[in-house]
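User: Fold this; tokens only.

Assistant: Input:
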Amino acid sequence: MERTNPELCPVDMMQVTYDLVASYMTSKINNENKYFGRGTYVGIRSSIMYLFTMSNRSPPAGFRDRMATLMKGFKRTIVEQRVAAGEPLEEGKEAMSFPCLKLLCKKFSEGDKDEYHFAHLFLLLEWNLMARSDNIVHLHVNDFEFQDDALLVYMKKTKTDQDGNHGRTPYNCYFNAVDPHLNLGLALGMYLLSNPGIVSNPQNKLFPAEHQYNGYTSILNKIIESNKEEFARIGVQPGTIGTHSARKGAATYASNGSTSSPSLGAICRRAGWKMSGTHEKYIKFEKAGDQYLGRLLCGLNVLLPEFAMTPPFFNCSEDELNEIDAVLMSFVPGSPVISAITFEVLRMCFACVVYHHDFLIERLQENNRF
């Protein structure tokens, strides 16, 4: 789609001057006669610049420099207002701490509704991939494969990779067999076995329903609100955690969660962040750094031997493995057409379910469909 199309531009940008824009932006105040958060004015500026692009016109001379000065003024004034009122300076949702992740996963895994299987998996994918919610929403079955001891996930298009140049970069995710609440393989296995039709076609979306972003946000808020005393004990209040919090928290945990943190290059590559010109040119993706990062993100303690543990797997004869495969095939509609790659993912996830059988029997509520 073309970004430049003067015929579709709703505003005559020839009439737009700095004074007009500044007057409009400074008039945007709340009911208490205070300015909104800085993000509000950043959004307005971005919208205006986009309209200039759409109309195929350049801003007036000096417009960009004067806008930069205005934005600095907004920032200083907003900080002064918040300090005077005793309000926090941070904008947006807070980063999710590792204890918050663990408590959310615990509540999701013990829930008695199908929506909790969905939310549990969604959260763990966000955290382990350090991904934006939009990238998780658009994952498909064929974006997953299992290789050696890792679940490989491909994100074909991201905010900073609109052309899909890194769409075949395999991000290594691991199954935490020490803590079933954090076990991505268990969450994925429970979700797929509860919704087996999803794997019948590799082109199916992992989360096929509409408005999954809104659905996840609603479930997340509901869980925190209904258990607010437990969350308050770890410093989390209702409304402070959002869908972007897992990405913030995972990046923070990866870089500062231990004294043996992964390289910044590995973190930036997985998060999809551009590095400075020289670094971007010379520091490329490499498996070892991403694998180390993946193990850290799944919750394994880097200071313990378990950090190198393998995921649960079926150590049995070929005949016994064929029997297990037959059981799995009976669960899935149209199972003969499942690709070998997808079936291997399903088998490894099923191994996690079997491995944590006692945990599931103890913790799942009686009316849980799984």
